[in-house]
Amino acid sequence: MKMMRVCFTFLTALVVLTALAGRSSAVNLLLNGDLDNKPTGASGQTPNVWTLDEFKTNSGPTTDLITIENFTQVGVDTSPNDFHGFVKAFQGNNITGDYANLNMYQDVVGVPGLTYQFSGYIGAGSNYSGLLPGSPTQTLLTIEFDNDNNRANGVLSSVTTNVGPSLTPGTGLPGYNAQLYAVQGTAPAGTLFVRGVFSALNMFSQPNPDPSAFIDDFSMQTVVPEPATIGLTLVGLVGMIGLGRRRS
Ligand SMILES: [Ca+2]
Ligand SMILES: [Ca+2]
Ligand SMILES: [Ca+2]
Question: Which of 69, 89, 136, 208 has the fewest CB within 10 Å, making it most exposed?
Answer without folding.
Answer: 208
